[in-house]
Amino acid sequence: MDFAEKALWAELKYKVYLAALMVNDGYTNEDVIDQLMEIVQILENSTP
Fold it and tell me: Is the pLDDT of residue 42 over 90?
């Protein structure tokens, strides 16, 4: 795994963790969904 892949995984893990914190802190469903959609966009724009 090269540095770019490690950075991508770190960003994805951070965003998932942030979404979980948002749920725990009582953010609205829309805010959490927006955060999760950012993760989907990152995954769509990355190569497997």
Answer: yes
Spell out the domain ranges in the chain: 3-44
What's the rounded Cα separation, in Å, for the pair 32 and 28? Answer: 7
Report residue 30 CA to chain centroid gap: 15
| pTM for this prediction | 0.82
Residue type, 29: N
CA distance 14 to 18: 6
- For 3-43, the three-class secondary structure string (H helix, E strand, C coil) is HHHHHHHHHHHHHHHHHHHHHHCCCCHHHHHHHHHHHHHHH
Is the pLDDT score of 1 beyond 80?
Answer: no
